[in-house]
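Q: Hi! First time asking for a complex rather than a single chain. Here are the components, and I think there are four in total. Is that enough to go on?
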Amino acid sequence: MTNRYRIGDLATRLAVPTQTIRYYEHEGLLPKPARTEGNYRVYGIAERERLTFILHCRALDMTLDEIRHLLRLRDVPGQGCAEVNSVLDAHIGHVAERIRLLNDLQLQLKDLRARCESPSTSKDCGILQGLASFPTAQDGGASRAGVHGRRAQE
Amino acid sequence: MTNRYRIGDLATRLAVPTQTIRYYEHEGLLPKPARTEGNYRVYGIAERERLTFILHCRALDMTLDEIRHLLRLRDVPGQGCAEVNSVLDAHIGHVAERIRLLNDLQLQLKDLRARCESPSTSKDCGILQGLASFPTAQDGGASRAGVHGRRAQE
DNA sequence: AGAAACTTTATAGTAGCTTTAAGGTCAAGC
DNA sequence: GCTTGACCTTAAAGCTACTATAAAGTTTCT
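A: Yes, that's all I need. Here is the structure of the assembled complex.
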């Protein structure tokens, strides 16, 4: 049977660092597991499935708070799932908004880039001048769209 | 003349918190300014312009490292600006990649959402089941697109 | 003179981990 | 029996780009 795992087994199987598993436990997303005599964590099928659920949610870029919310709903199987829908709809809304912001940003960046097609000295560089004089993003600016994700440049 | 500012003046004019200005100084993006007798920071036109440059870059969602790089290039006016172009092109690439990832993510989320159009109990909810069994984002997954930006939900 | 409004530094908190340190456990090999 | 190495343990610091708080000093207004 393969339904008893130590933390490293679980980590390898689900391709997640062991520290992250401990972190999820610390954050209350995973329950405190049983321990061996030597104080090693022991996980079963239920925990493996719960962690899979969490990882899928993270792959969909939900926050730990959103995931906590879904896990609570999952833990009460009798409830209606209208609330599940609303968590997901809210998240879809976040993503849509983010895409909109990034598209705006991309337009601005390409506009800026077009100011220096012919290389000159940086003193006269249209890009550097553009960055120094560009209208301030007082309102309607890019407003921190979050381009630089951890795994984005792999 | 309005070319001598204390930190609060500068902050108000450029709509940035004073702490952020000190932080940029701490991070070496702004030089250590002159001080009054009472040890207050004093800024002139050059610093104001430099801060404006930084804020525009941030509005375009560049990292402080990218900005540091551009500032260095800006500080050596005789250099060619091919490198400016390449910093900007790299950043445009980051944004494009992020948009692509988020579009993928949006597709997955909508697919998931479609599993529960008719509300049932959460035990049978297609969404929760989907999240538990969805193919793991082993490769080609959403890979942390960063949806939840600081100012995104304002 | 005294209060309000500004400034100073230092420190901690945010999200979601990753990294490091300093050590304990366990199976295999000599 | 003892060591080596792979695994595990906890706690704490580091990452980005700030934001918030505390405790104190300075300047300005009345």
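A: Residues 82-113 of chain A form the longest helix (32 residues). Let me know if you'd like any chain examined more closely.
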